[in-house]
Structures are given as structure tokens and as C-alpha cells.
Amino acid sequence: MTVKGSTSGTSTDNEGRYSISIPDRNNVVLVFSSVGFAAQEVVVGDRSTINQTLFSTSAALQDVVVIGYQTVRSRDVLASVSSISAKDLKDVPINNAAEALNGRLAGVTATSSEGSPDANVRIRIRGGMSITSSNEPLYVIDGVQVESGLSTISPQDIQTIDVLKDAAATAIYGARGANGVVIITTKSGRPGRTVISYNGLIGIRKLARKLDVLSPYEFVFYQAERSRQQGGQDSLSFLKNFGTTWDTLNVYKNVEAMDWQGEVFGKTGGTQTHNVTASGGGKKLTYNFGYTYNDDKAIVLNSSYKRHLLNLKGDYRVTDNLKVGLSSRYTLQNVYGAGVSAEGGSSLSRLRNTIRYRPFLSGAQDIDESDPFNDPNVGNGLILVNPIALANAEYRRKTTDAYNVTVNAQYTILKNLTFRSTVGFDRNKRTDRQFYDTLAPLSVQNGRKPLISLDTTEAKTLTNSNVFTYSIKGWKNDHNFDFLLGEETYDLKTKINTTQVRNYPLNIGYNDAFKEQTQGTVVTGYPRVSESRFTQLSFFGRVGYSFKDKYLLSANVRRDGASKFAPERRWGTFPAGSVAWRLKREKFMENVDFINDMKLRFGYGTMGNNRIADYLYQTIFSHNGSRYYGLNGQPVIAYVPTALPNQFLTWESTVNRNFGLDMTILKNRLDLSVDYYINSSKNLLLNVNIDPTYGFATQQQNVGKTSNKGIELQLNATILRKPGGLNWTANFNISHNKNQVDQLGPNQTQSLVGGVVDPRSWGVAGQPTDYILRIGESIGSMWGLVTDGFYTVSDFTYNATTSQYTLIPGTVADSAIIGTIQPGSIKFKDLNKDGKIDLNNDRTIIGNPNPKLTGGLNQQFTYKQWDASLFVNFMYDFDVYNANKIELTNAYSTNSNMLGIMQDRWRTVTPTGQNAQWVRNVNGVPTVFGIPPDQLSALNANAKIWQPLISNGAFIPHSWAIEDGSFLRINNLTVGYTLPIKGFTSVHLSKLRFYLTANNLAIITNYSGYDPEVSVRTDARTPNLDYSAYPKSRSFIFGVNATF
Amino acid sequence: MNSRFLNQMVIFAAAFASVFMLGSCKKYLDQQPITEVGSQAVFKDVNTTLQALAGVYGRLSGDAGYGLRLSLYYPVDNDLLMGPSGNQDDRRAMAHYSLTSLNSELPGPFNQLFEGISLANICIDEIPKMEMYSNGTDQQKAQLRRMQGEALTLRAQFYFEALRNWGDLPEHFLPSYLQATENPYPVRTDRDLIYDHILEDLKQAATLVPWRNEVSSVGDPVDERITKGAVKGLRARISLYRGGYSLRSSGTMQRGSNYQTYYQIARDETNDIISSNQHSLYPDYKALWRDIVCGHVVIDPNGELMFQVTAIGAGSTADTKMGYANGPRVNGQGNSFVNPLPHYFYLFDSTDIRRDVTIAPYDVAADGITKIGQASTNLRDGKYRRDWIKGPAISPTSAVQYFGIKWQLLRYSDVLLMFAEAENEINGPTSAAYNAVNMVRRRGYGKPVSTPDVAIDIPGGLSKADFFKYLVRERALELGAEGIRKYDLIRWNLLATGLAEAKTAMTTMSTRTGAISFSYMIGPPSYAANPANLPQTMYFRRTATTDDASIWANSLYKTSPSSAPSGTTAVNWVHSSIQSTIVTSATRYAFGFTPGKSELFPIPQQARDANPNLSQNPNY
Fold first, then answer.
1. Angle, to 10 degrees, between the axis of helix B412-427 and the axis of helix B464-479?
2. Which candidate from A622, A623, A636 shows the least CB-CB separation from B50?
3. Which of A175, A723, A823, B406 sees the fewest Cβ atoms within 10 Å?
4. A:B CB pairs within 8 Å
5. How many CB atoms lie within 10 A of CB B193?
């Protein structure tokens, strides 16, 4: 507390009492201030007792943020940075901290690809720029770049996450900054007595949504319908499988339906997390030690997740000038269960079995007994197996064993000059063990003998950075300077070991199969080993200047050299600059009382993206076992060049322009940030099609260009603020981003991907592509035919004598896609108006994966001992490619159930079993026959959807499968109660809080699949694909926070 | 500014300098591949060079090579065989000549052949530069020379396959990394020039590669690698194509210049092989296929199998789909892509062993033994058949699609027939020409090859033209379903004729009136030429277990019995369904064939998009 305009002042005692002598009570103004609270000025007047309450300042203003290699007050930040702190994370009972970022920060999306406990969380900062390289941001934990992202850190151990979004902040990371930077600071100890805290939670998980499927009767009815397609009689296989004729079909009305989804996905999962931390220290040494255990029984049969995390952080003040610090973490994680899908074609989909397997048990079949029916379509891998038997036949365990040690030393050379050196070592070893017993599709294709695959990936990173910082404060009163100069090395070694062993004896267990590989036959070309090393050397500097705290200026530059490029193209320079103008400090703003602070920012800079494979610039031969030739019955493993080298390869780079406005208004109760940005990338790596007569169909070239434009708004509001009463704060953000492809390879305006063309989306052999890269459109645009309902009898002429239906000449025909056209066949739009549907001329862009708007609203309430929070997030106007719908409504394979919507299909058999429509070969030409048009129309008066596709075209992508994914999700609702402490002092309990949380409580959406927030493929070119995803769950949690 | 400030600046400058010292080690950024290696490590010794050569050999096999597409998809339809039905722009359109440049089966083989060429180019460039090539031991030098010759031969084979399918093509005889950047859009070179180049290469290769009986003396094991016989046989084959017809960019079928020169080369090369006595016919035609080829035997004792594409790994990279994609289906599994045509069946003499080897008129039931007779419109090719495979045999329930069966690229009987053809062209039907054809025939009937047999030998005193017609038929009988026929017809400029006359023959069978005959080759034996005398229906025994025509309960050469023999099932044979399902079907036999277009495939659109200088073939 000071007397305004003088140097005299005092402090309150522990209970807040104070006394002060003042010179002249009439003109004295007392200034009450405290760290973290807004200063209050009080005119003393004639009072002798003045009780004053202080209100905390807006959180954002008092916080500091970490920007590259430096910590600054957030009010002085010249860049676009969003932050989240421990308080926001505390109620989110999740295993992956990355998930906590979803919807909370403007311009940051964190989408989990599916619902599995270890699902990949895709973090995108202002949309992706790169087409083929990674769009993952750079992760920096306690000052050290790590490759493993946020998966090896417990949310409970995080102090803050700062997300750097524009070049002004990220350019200091040079070649690795283009995708944004996520900086994590873990909790440190504080001097004082040892504080032990326990955070625990237990809860249950439930399948959030089920897909409707046909009932047993409807299923058998359709199988009979299908079996009569050719020729009009029940096929022998139908009779064999269902042992019935139409007379006895009715028995299936009384057969009990098997809810396979309920059996396979509907298990009530359990989740528990226990986190214990101890922190404290003295004047010299502070420490923080934590242990976290996660145990998650997922909702999918045989799936579970277990993780142990240890972390230790310590800081030691050796002398007044020298501080050293240690930060280390250890992770052991095991994920059990084969999951629902794997990257690749339809043969690897497990969802199929759950949806399509016969919806009842036949005869004395046990619930986990494999199929007494013939496997349909073994050739395409579209085997149907009892989903429970399949889950038991496939074993998978993914282990992550990782540790990280970081040591830093900071030496204050002079008062204003410090040197900091950081050395980090990170090792991440992942082992993926898979075992397939005889029922599994992979095993069936390999002669029905058990097989395994065993992959190990080990990455070791060694980084070292050395940084000087120098500052001059108040030079000639008004000038402040900051200098930073640094150097960094980065060394990444990767080793990948894969093996596959087949032909194990029957009935071998998975443990024996992994251990005793000699019992099987190692697949030709295995084991494969691939090792690589990447080194990078960088220099960087930054100059910061501010004048009267009114004009702020910052410039930085980084020079990176990387081993990935040819010596003459090894070095790249990444400059950036930013300016800010704090208007509030101008005279004309002084009296604008409702504005507490106001700042305009502009930043411009260049960053790079080096997430590309090593050694691409030189001719190299691999010898990894993938190529070989047989001689004398033995494989000779071949040396083959891996690619046609391109000695001109260089960084992908992005130029970023950012305009920002930060405002604090209404007595510091509302912070507002608006950012507008234009990002343009060039030199994007594309696998350009080159003349294949050179022996390679493609070559990596730096030719692509894309751009992103967007606007973001972030609001932090203190709506109600009453000490001891109701407090209500809200954080809201909304952002819009538009992505566009500006240039592809030479002579190239578009490139088709997906289907079974690399990068694959889904499907069976021969399936067409379903995504497109096209200049002027966004990356990941969906590509296909436009659905146009179905043919009706009015499209045909009918010959009453022969009962023959003939398509009226001139009617648009899609026989090239679906085969024989019948009444009820699916129809597509003839875009080029040539009277026929063909893939080359009638496909168009049918979906855009990018939402128009994304955002979230988080509200926190406290009232006396109670607290509550409610978090909703949303995405508006984006497309999801529901490929499940295409596969699960076709009848490509016999004896396969379908989604419930096919109940409303065009029918070719009357309810009493009379044939209404059938196809027969006449002179080798399939010809359609049926009952008279009026009767056929009457039968199908209520048909809403086409006949299930049987052969050709059963997997063709078309616009019906593209759905609007817009959603509003009640992501998290928490209610907590903190016990009054007094009764517990004997056990040194200083805080005890209980809370209840519901996660993914509800979602409002028109999307028909499990969940619209889905993207099962990692490639940027095939986004928002919903194909055999692990369904998301809803969880209800009870938790405790206790501090001793 | 006070001195303290200056002091600070000095220290700061010193610090600045030290920072740049720290990481200035330039070597830090020089990272070389670890598990992958540069060319010096590859072309280091005999063993590593063989592994580089294995990469070149490896481009022969796999799905995009002779493992599936080049061997089974590309050579149909022809006058003997037909591919699967359908009108999508895939293998079915390709088989029936209705394909477009976007056909999904084009880029894979096109690219793989050129990958083979580019890999061979690296070996051809690097091997002679090896220290050991000039200064190694005699054995090392001989082994490296052999590998150089093999690389030259393989490059010739890849180019040959590409030229006969696509015509003129860019010319690449140097490693791609030396060329691709400075000349990204090469133009097509006249095929005759490329043929001349590879024929010179093969001439050189023949001086580098040992005969099959000399392999051990070089220090190499006896295996499937190329020997001198294969080099010379290939040179003969390519000479016949160089001297034969092909579709030129003008849209007309034209013969290469100086064609007789090339027939002379073919004659001399085949004559060299014959007189070397290194190779001979395996006495038992059926056992050659059933026991040697389908029996996973490395090489046959006679060296009849002169150039085999090996198959290993049970995957699409280096195996073949022989016996799965073609041949009889077993337990419903398999694709039976290749269907011999009904008139082809009757081109064989009833006692010709080759008929029931080349054509399998059955599928196999789930028990792996019982045979299910097939209609004449649904015959299976039989040289690669799943039910013959042994060492190991394939279980009927196995869903595996790769059986490790080697595709036969060149057999000695082809060398004999090429000799006869070239000799006849240059010198007329000499006794040497007769002898070569008759040796092949006698073996086909199971007779001693060197003993004249009037019942089997072709008639004496034929004109040059008539001898050729016998030869055209003999190649059909001996080499059926070995991926040769379509290309033979093209080089003879008989593809359009062959397809048209095959349709006529099938129509004749379908209507059961008139006689089957061909203008360009000798027709069926007289007792099989008149469809009216042939069975309309065939009855197979439901218990049949043999692997040949004896599954039938009635004669193949008499009209059908009036009622079904007991315990049999009927299938259509010389029946009107031939016409409806094959000849007039809108989605079947050669329906898209257009003379002046279909003799070449289109250049894949993908390649033309990447290289605008690649012009398209005529009429695509």
C-alpha cells in the first residue's frame, strides 16, 4: 500500500491489518495493490479506518506466456498465442492432454480420430498447410522439442500449454515452426513445506450411440430376396443356410435378435486414474514429483488401456548466479485389443462383422461360436465372422516405453545478461504385437494358420540449446531492449524393426507365438530393419524493443541447416517481424474508461516444415526385405533404389501475415482478442508424377502451394465476481478458416487419391478414388458421383406378354457402374449430359471437410464451497464421408446384414413371398422381368431407398454418403464440492474436493453415424472419413482432489 | 553510454562468437544412409552385385509382371483363348479390346517394365566400373561378366515386352538419375531403333553368359538364372518381332525394315542352340507341366525350361498367381481368367497329349478330388492348375492366392518352332525345318522325338506357304496359353483374321452346320471338323476323379446319346450357347477389336499426363 505520489508505504500483516501515517488527509490517495489483483485507489478523506477489498485482475493480463526460448508477460506479447492452464485441465478426465485442447482455443482443433483410448489426436493450428508432409505442430516440453507430442505427459502434471499460432512467435523455431508450436510447461515445486496432493477418479464408459440394423426376419427376408435375383427361385445356398421356404419364413419373426453392437461395443467400460504428486523445497532446492496411473477398460470387447507415468522436476540454485534444473519423465503404456479397424482396405474392417453378422444365433450356436455358414467372398477379404469369436481370435498389444531427461543450467553473467543451456534426451520405444488366430481374415487369406506381426519403432532424440538473453530496461527512461541469441542442435535416430511369421501350428497361444517364432515360418523378406538419422543445426536471434510501453517491436531470424537436403541446399533462413501499438497509452484513450487496455498487432514472417523423409536427395538402395527374387526356392533379398532422387529438394515454407487486436474492457472483466491471418505455403512436397519411362512413376518435388485464410475471436469474461458469493467466468472462442490448393505439379490441375490408390481411404480391389486435390479447392475434398434417387417403373416400358421391363431409350443409364438396371436401381446425375454415367465424366466434388466455424464455450461457476463447469464445443458446416453407410447398405456378400434404413428399400418380393421382379439371361444379356407396373409400383409405394447393390458399384462413393457433420457437443459437465477444511487439520489436509463429471454427455447433430467428429486416416488428403471407426463413448466420473 | 554498458557489450559479443563456435562442426549435418546404402556399397563384390541383379530379375514377377498381368491379362483375347466377361474399363475391357487409356491395368505393368529397365541400366552402368570386374580373380570376373550379361538380357526382355504392347517408346539406356532432370519429357523413339539396340545388347550378352552346362565351372550354383541358351533364344524371338509386323504410328500394320536380315538372325541363333546340344525336349509333355512346373522343381533335367520367371513370397511382389487366377477352380476358389475356346479344343488330334494338358474341362469340388465338368464355353486353361500343385500341395480350403509356380517365358520347343519358321522363311521347308516341327509333334504325342512317325509327322512336300500354315497350327497346339499366341498373330499380321475366323468357327459349331476351317492355319482333324458329328451335350460323371477328358461319360467325337447316362450331369458342348455367350455377347469375345488400333495398347493416360511429349497410339 502506498501513498500516491510519494515513496511512503506499508504492508498489511497476516490478517490484513495495517496502519499508515499520512501527511495531509484531505489530499491523500492510498493505493492498495497486491500481486494478481487490480490496484485500487481510495481517497482517504476524513476516515481513519479504511477497509478495502481487492479484486483479482483479469487472468490473461497477469499471466506470463512462454514464446520461443523466452517467457514474457502476456500483455506484452506481439504474437498470436493462446493458452490453457492447469485450472482448465483439472476437470477433464482424459488420458491424452491433447484432447483437452479441443474447442478451447481459437484456431486450434484437436480431433481424436476415433473413440479408442489411445486414438490419435490430430492437432491442427489454423488448418493444415502441407499436403503430403505432417501438419502436426512442434511440441516443446520444458524447453525441449519432443517427437511424441502430448501422449507421454499426464494432464495432471501440466502447468500451462501455450499455443503459438503466427510467425511472430513461431519463426524462432524456423524450419519446424510452420504448423504452429505447442509449448508445455510442467508443474514445478515451490519453496515451503512439502505439499502432497492426490487426484483420483473412477468412472464408467458407455457406448454413446448404436446403429440400427435389420431384424432377424427382415434379414432373412432380404436374403431370400437376394437369392432370387437371378432366375427367380430361392438359391440352393439360401435353402442350405436358412433351412426354410417362404411358408416357414415366419418363424424368424419370433427368433430372438442378437444385438452384436451391444455385445461387442456395448460393454460398460471402466476408467480410473490416480495421480499423486509431492512438491516443495527450500531456498536452494525445489522439486515436484508425480506418479499417474491410468486404467481404462474400453467399451470394445477385449480392449483396455493401462499407463504409468512418472515425472520428476527439480530446480537447484547453486549460487545466486547459477541455477540448474532437471526435468524427467517415464511412461509405460499398454493398449490391449485389436480395435475396430486398421489403415487399409475393407478386409481389415472389424465393424463389418458387428453390423453385418447374422442378427441371431442359429440353432444351438453359442454366442462366441464361429460361423457355421460359408464365409462370403474370401477373395476380397470380406469375410464375415462371429464378431465375438473374431475379437477372441485377434490379439493385439501396443506398448509404449518412453523416457525423457532434460537438464538445464542458467547462469547470470551480469545483471542483464544470462546464459541458458538445455540438454534433452528423449527415447520412445513402441512395440506393436499382433496375433491372428485361424478365424481372422488375415489368417484365412494365409491358409487358415495362425500368424503374427511384431513391429518395434525406437526413436532417440538428443537436443541441445544454448541461449543468451540480454536486456536493457529504461534506457533514457523510455526505451527497453531485449536481445536473444541462441544455437541449437537436434539429432534424431529412428530404428524400425518389423517381422511377420506365418503358418504356426493350430491352437498355439499368442504368448507362445510371440516367443517361439521358430514354430512358424518367417515371411519372405522379413525381418526388416530400417534405420535413419536426422541432424539439424540452427542459429537464431531476436531483438525486442519497446518505447514507453506504447510501441512494441520485435524481429527475429533463424537459420537452419538439416541433413535431409543436399549440401548446397542445406541451409534455410526464416525471418519474422512484428509490431504492436498499445493505443491505451495514447493521450486520446486516457479518458476512455471502459477500455482498460488495447493493443493492435501485426506480424509477418516465414517458417518451414521439414517433416519429410531422410536422404531423399541421393540415390540410395534399400535392402530391407521388401524386394526379392526367388532362386532355387530361396529368396534373394534385393538391393533396390528406394526412389528417384531429387537433389533440388528443400524445405516446405509458409509465409504468415497476422493482424491482431487485444482489448481488455469493462473494468478488466472482459478480454477480447481478434486475429485475422493469411498463410501461404510454397515448396510443398508432392510426389509428382514423372514420366514413368524413367523407371519411377513419381518423384518428390517442391512444387505445391496452398493457402489458409482465417479469422479468430477469443473472449474471456468474468461475468459475476463476488468473493464468497457466486462467481461466473466464461471463455468463448470461435474461428473460421478457409483452405485452398493453389498449385500442384507441373501440368497438373488435379490429382485423385483415396479408394485403394495411395493414400488409401477404404474399399476393395478396383474401387475408385474418393478424394481429390484440385487447384482452387481445399485439401481433402471428397470426390464422387451425385446420387439421384432410384429408377422407378416409369423409366421402363413393360411387355405384358413376356413380363419384360426395358429401360426407355434416352433414359440416363448407369449400367457401367451398377450393372443391370432395374426398377429400384440406384441412380446418379449425368453431369456431362451424355446419357450415361461413367466415372470419368460424372464425378464431381461432393464434400468439403473444413468447417465454416469451430469453437467452444467453457463456463466456470463457484458458489461458496461449490463449483461447476460446463464446456460445449461445436463445428458448423462441414462434411463427413460416411463410408460405413455405403458398405453396410450393400449386399455385395451373401448373408450379410444391413443398416436399418434398408428396411425401406425397393422390394422385389411381395410380403407373401411372390416374386415381383427378377433378372434372367436372355441370349447372354441380363434382362429384367416382373409383375405388371401398377402392381410393382404399389408394392414399392413407400420405398425410400434403392435396392441394395449386389455386385458392380457396391462400393462406389457417391454423394448420399457425404453428410453434414455440424454438431454441438456438451463435452463436459462437472459439479464439485470442496469440504470446509477446519475439521481436517489433524491430518494436515488443506484441501479436499469431490466432483462428478459427465464427458461427452450429449451431442446435437444430424449426422447418422456414430459420431461426426471422426477421421480415421492420418493423411491430410483423406480427412473426415468415417469407416470402421472405434465408436466414441460417454463417461461418468467421480473424482477427488486432496491436498495435504 | 558508460563503461559498464560497453563492458556488457563486449561480453555479449564474445558470447555471440562462442555460440557460433559451438555447433560449427560441418560434419554434423552430413548424415549418410544407415540401413540403406549408396551405390559403392552395392556394387562392391559378387554377392552384393547379385543382390542388385535380384532387384532387376524381381521386376519380371509379381502381379504387375509375369506373375499375373503380363502373362494372363495382356495376351487375350486371341484365336484360341478368351478373357473374362464384363465391360468395365479393367482387365475385362483389356481382354476384349474395349479398353481406354485410363484402363486400370495399364499403368502397373507399363511402370514395372520401365522400372526393370532403369534397374538394369544401373547394373549395366555400374558393373563394368567395379574394381573386381577388371582386377578380381578369374572366377570373380567371370561371375561379374555373367551378371552384366544377365542385366543386358533382362533389359532386352523388358523393352521387348514394352515394345510389342505399346510400340515406339522413349529410349533409356543410361541410369535415370543422369537423365531425368535434364530431359524430363523424352519423346518416343522408333521401335526399330530400340529393337536394333537390344539385339546388339543380346549379342554382347551371349559372349558374357555361360551355357547351362558351364554354370558350375564359373562357380555359380545351378538355378533359374539366365544362361546362354536363353540369351540366344530371346535374341531369336526378338528378331522375329523386329522382322515381323506391328502397328505403326500411321495406323497401318507394317513390317520392320530389312526383315529377312532378322529372320536370318533368328535362324542362326536357334540353330546355335540346337547344335549346342545344351537343351532338349523333356520326353513327357504332361509330366513337364504336372510334375516339373506344378511340382515346384527348380529346373528340368533336359533344360527345356530355358527361361523361367520364378515365384516366391506368397505376395504381389515376387510371386505369381498361376493356378489361382487361371486354371480350374478348386472348391469354388480361383478366377479362371483364361478360357480356351471351344474350337481350340477340336484343333487338337484326339490322341494329342497336349489337348488335355492345355485345356482342363473341369473344376474341382470341395473334396479336392471330384471333378465338375464344364461347358465348352467355360473351359479352363490347364498348364498351371491348382490340383496338380505339389511340393507342397494346396489344400482345397486354402484361401491363399499365391502358390510359388513359375511362369515359363521360353521353352526349347519354341526354339525348335522358331527355327522351323525362320528356316522356312529364308530357305523354304527344308528337312531341318521339317525335323524341328516333327520333333515337337512327336513329343506331343508321347513318341520318341527322333523317330519318324507318319501318323504324327506333318505331311512332306509342302509349299513354303502351306508349311507356314502347319507351323501356325503347331504353335497353337504346342504353346497354347503360354502368353505367346496374340503376339505371334500380330507379328504375322493375322490378329484381325484370327479373331474373325475364330468367331466364324464358333458360329459354325453353334449352328452345327458346315465345317470348321481356317484360311491362315491348318484346321482340326477331319473327324472333328464337322460340328454336326460332334456332341451337343456332354455328360460328366459326378464321381469323376481324373484330370483329363475321361471325366466324360460320352464321346467327344460323336453326337450325344439320346438320354443322359446314369449318374451323370449334362453340360452344353457343341451347342447354340456358344454363339450367345461368346460370339454375339456384347461383353465378351474380342467385341471391341478394331484393326489398326487394337494391335497396340494405349499409352497409359497417367504417363501422358506426366509427360506431354508421349503421343498416343493410333485411334485411342
1. 170
2. A636
3. A723
4. 272
5. 10
